[in-house]
Amino acid sequence: MNGTSFDDARVKAAIRQTLSDSIFQYTAYPTDHHILQVVEALVGKFPCLKEPGSFSGMYGWQQSLKTRMSNFRRMLKSRNISCPEIEVNFLKRKDSSNQAPAKNIKRPKRAEVNYLPPFPVGETKEGLEKERLDLLYEVKKKHNERTITAKMAKTFAIRRLEVVHDGPSVQEFIERWPGLFREDQVKEEFRRITAIPLEATFLGKLDHYTPQLLKVMRAKGGVAGSKICPILDTLCQLHSIDQQRDAVICSLMEYFGENNDELFLKCQENDRSSQSQTMKVLLVYSQDDPVDPVDVALVIDGTEVLTKLENKTKACILLMGLIYALNLEYPPKLKNTFDAFQKIFLELEPKRLLNKVQTLRNKLLT
């Protein structure tokens, strides 16, 4: 209270131990941003813990927590204590070309809360594999959503281990986990991984920022501005909120200088070939109606993983869910768009943005 620094080494050591234990409950590999958030909360509540001689008073805490987390991981490895997030990075599990302690580490990269959770208490790999086989029959039944959701939740840990460690192809994963490739289960899986609701959060923030987004995008000049204006000019003619959202999403991509065609692929109903597509939203049109698509589908690695989606925005939302569920990379030519989806509309790791996205966010908050 009077500006005096607290200087009891034993108490500080106990605080560091408690903090590292608490962090480990969420992730074995916290980022610098995560650790900084913890330290900011600590010294914010207890200013006496600021360290003299440091510009922010937090540097020593940050470094000591990073060291403690590293030592803790090393201790678990040496004692063979089970922790999926650490086991997957054991040298003996890596390819011969990647057998170096810091090379090709599998760790959370997009603010995942449950990146590699432990198995449920009392469950074994064999028992969860049996649950997976049961799921193959349950998904064939009608009106069976409650049972499917319960079994998907129960097998979440083994599914994540398979995704992160084995990196199966999309087609292989569909065969093993067909229950995931349903709209409701994509949303549930995203909630399990991040602890936030996917669609409600995305749409809530999109609608919240739309008035300011329109102002910012209308003021955009150059080539991007010339592409944005025709899209925004149609807004007054759109009576559906879904169509308006689609227009805002398409304008956002052009604002970043990223082509809509990199994500949205138009095709005819009788020519629905997607085998060569890595990650696309397929817009399927009939010969009778070239304006409104008869189907909107998601394609990943040449496989249609979801169909009968309502609009482009819904497709983008579910694509984000599948990227998290399958531990996929963002399309490199759309990195700013997907960074905005994650950090502005889903507010996951919102303090580490790409430069163009940071500039946009600053404009949205003014």
Strand order of the largest sheet: 1-2-3-4
**Rg:** 24 Å
CA(first)-CA(last) distance: 34 Å
Form type: flat
The mean pLDDT is 86
Order of helices and strands: HHHHHHHHHHHHEEEEHHH
Largest sheet: 4 strands, mixed
Total beta strand runs = 4
Helix count, DSSP H or I runs of 4 or more residues? 15
The percent range for strand residues is 5-15%
Helix % is 40-55%
- The residue ranges in which pLDDT falls below 50 over 5 or more consecutive positions are 98-103
Characterise the protein shown here:
- The chain is of the alpha+beta class and 366 residues long.
- Among the domains are: 9-82, Arc Repressor Mutant, subunit A (Orthogonal Bundle), CATH 1.10.10; 198-267 and 310-364, no CATH class.
- It is 52% helix and 6% strand.
- It contains 15 helices and 4 strands.
- It has helices at residues 9-24, 32-45, 59-78, 84-87, 125-138, 145-154, 156-166, 170-176, 183-194, 198-218, 222-233, 241-255, 312-325, 335-345, 355-364, and strands at residues 264-268, 279-285, 295-300, 303-306.
- Strands 1-2-3-4 form a 4-stranded mixed sheet.
- Strand 3 (295-300) and strand 4 form a beta hairpin.
- Helix 1 (9-24) packs across helix 3 (59-78) and helix 2 (32-45) packs across helix 3.
- 28% of the residues are buried.
- Mean pLDDT is 86; it is low at 98-103.
